[in-house]
Specification:
The protein has 18 helices and 23 strands. A six-stranded mixed sheet has the order 15-14-18-19-21-20. Strands 2-3-7-6 form a four-stranded mixed sheet. α9 runs antiparallel to α10 (about 300-315) and α10 (about 300-315) packs antiparallel against α13. The longest helix is centred in the last third of the chain and has 23 residues, at about 490-515. The chain is flat, with a radius of gyration of 27 Å.
Length: about 525
């Protein structure tokens, strides 16, 4: 763990945020310390720094810890006291003591709790659980607390429903699914099975072994996948699936829609929604192509079609279906967006690499895999990012919160997306393209590159454009004088995505070379 670097005794950056909390401490832990520990553990993890005050909003001062030995001793004692905190996540390597500007500082890292450990709560039987929002802690409400508890289960959709029967399912969807399965696998016995036996065979119905009469019960995942809408909403009252298509990015009126409860779709379940939307997504992809480095024709259309399919399946496999939020696909001119309630359950890094897949809904995931719609676990993330890389598109955006996941797949490159957002001039676009290609560049080098491309701009005009791009926070500079360099100002999350993508590419190259 790295020591946090403070620029001066009084500072504004690094400022508190979703993963960083400053607290004053003298002879003991501050009163609200465990509130922050709970909040960070239940959100994205992060750091608590003891010995920092905040005299004014976002203005911080290093005050130090007077007796750090006592504070650290109290921390370890309280950490293993279940009446203080429900989960001891921090190890000895996660606590550092050091001096900054002559003041004693204690730095404590709080890992993000695994799903099976959440909610991390304080006060024992009172079970108060906190979440992190921006730079503060807040008490989780009843709905959020329920989500943390339900989501701690290995598989959320394995719940057995005792009062549901075949009459609650859309049997036309079941038979369509069976037809697809017959095409995919060579199992002649599938033809002979009646509907009930088939549904038991694929996991829609399971025996309840906890009861002496071992009744056959429908799984929650089976109901969501094949159920009639009224039957689904009797168990999941907020169940809502939506697809919207817009002609332009800023339009508010949709030109096409698929929605639960709509008169055109009176009995929409997961399977029927997937079949409708998977036919709509390719209509939002312009059929064009880019040439790859070896000058062979690569298929932009085919790659984007595969990427959107992976994102759609991911969106339907991993939601927290007890949420009151809508599961939604949005198709706009420049991008597709896939939103579902429930966090990703894995880090963004793991998603990109296809590592450590964890399914929230194992029944739904299994039903997709049995007919080849979803393939091996964890393959979706790498395919989504490979599609963007092959076609030089803006890297996909992933936003995962404690209660939601959003994946945006761009149809255009980074420069085009910035141009659409900021309406850049031709000069600004020319400069931005070179800055993007070179990654880090000086004004002199920029002038040379522009001249090579017969784009005549004076140094004064270049500096003026660079200043405009900096004002819009598209470009930033580092260094001073002749050593000043300019680069595209990616967000922290985009930088993580870009770094992970490059590392994954190096891994793949090394693997191919040696094997």
């Amino acid at each position: 763990m790295k020591i946090l670097d403070f620029p001066s005794l009084e500072f504004t950056i690094p400022n508190e945020g979703i993963t960083l909390e400053y607290k004053t401490a003298s002879f003991s832990l501050p009163k609200n310390f465990w509130d922050s520990y709970s909040a960070l553990a239940n959100t994205d993890g992060g750091m608590i720094i003891l010995g920092i005050s905040e005299p004014k909003k976002h203005n911080y001062k290093i005050t130090g810890v007077d007796v750090p030995e006592d504070v650290i001793t109290q921390f370890w004692s309280d950490l293993h006291n279940s009446k203080k905190i429900s989960a001891a996540l921090t190890s000895t390597d996660d606590v550092l003591r050091y001096k900054a500007f002559g003041k004693e500082i204690i730095q404590i890292y709080v890992p993000k709790a695994a799903n099976t450990q959440r909610p991390v709560y304080i006060n024992g039987e009172k079970a108060q659980s906190y979440l992190r929002t921006d730079d503060g802690d807040r008490l989780a409400n009843d709905e959020e607390f329920k989500y943390l508890i339900v989501d701690s289960q290995t598989s959320v959709d394995s719940e057995l429903l005792s009062n549901y029967t075949m009459d609650d399912l859309n049997l036309n969807d079941v038979r369509k699914y069976r037809d697809i399965m017959l095409e995919k696998v060579e199992e002649p016995e599938l033809i002979k099975m009646d509907d009930e036996k088939f549904l038991e065979d694929i996991g829609v119905f399971k025996i309840d072994h906890s009861k002496s009469d071992r009744p056959l019960c429908m799984t929650a995942g089976g109901l969501l996948f094949f159920g009639k809408l009224n039957s689904i909403t009797s168990r999941f009252p907020h169940f809502q699936l939506d697809y919207f298509k817009y002609a332009k990015n800023n339009d508010t009126d949709w030109i096409d829609r698929i929605s639960s409860g709509d008169m055109n779709f009176p009995s929409l379940n997961i399977f029927s929604f997937y079949n409708l939307v998977i036919d709509k997504l390719p209509l939002g992809i312009q059929d064009s192509f880019n040439q790859s480095e070896d000058m062979t024709r690569g298929s932009y259309y085919s790659d984007l079609k595969k990427a959107t399919k992976e994102a759609l399946v991911n969106m339907l496999m991993h939601p927290y279906y007890d949420s009151n939020s809508t599961i939604k696909v949005t198709d706009k001119k420049s991008y597709f967006e896939f939103y579902n309630p429930g966090d990703m359950r894995v880090s963004i890094d793991s998603f990109i690499r296809g590592q450590d897949p964890r399914s929230r809904n194992s029944v739904i995931a299994s039903l997709f895999r049995k007919i080849g719609i979803a393939e091996r676990a964890g393959s979706g993330g790498p395919r989504i990012f490979a599609s963007a890389e092959r076609n030089h598109l803006h890297s996909p955006d992933i936003v995962t919160n404690p209660d939601s996941t959003q994946i945006r797949i761009w149809k255009i490159d980074l420069l085009s997306s910035l141009n659409e957002k900021y309406e850049l001039s031709n000069d600004e676009m020319a400069i931005l393209k070179i800055v993007g290609d070179q990654r880090y560049i000086s004004t002199r080098q920029l002038k040379e590159e522009l001249d090579k491309h017969s784009y005549q701009l004076t140094e004064y005009k270049i500096r003026k454009c660079l200043q405009t791009l900096q004002d819009k926070k598209i470009v930033y500079h580092f260094g001073n004088g002749p050593s000043t360099r300019y680069t595209i100002n990616l967000s922290e999350e985009q930088n993580l995505l870009e770094a992970t993508r490059i590392f994954k590419q190096l891994e793949d190259t090394t693997f191919k070379r040696h094997y």
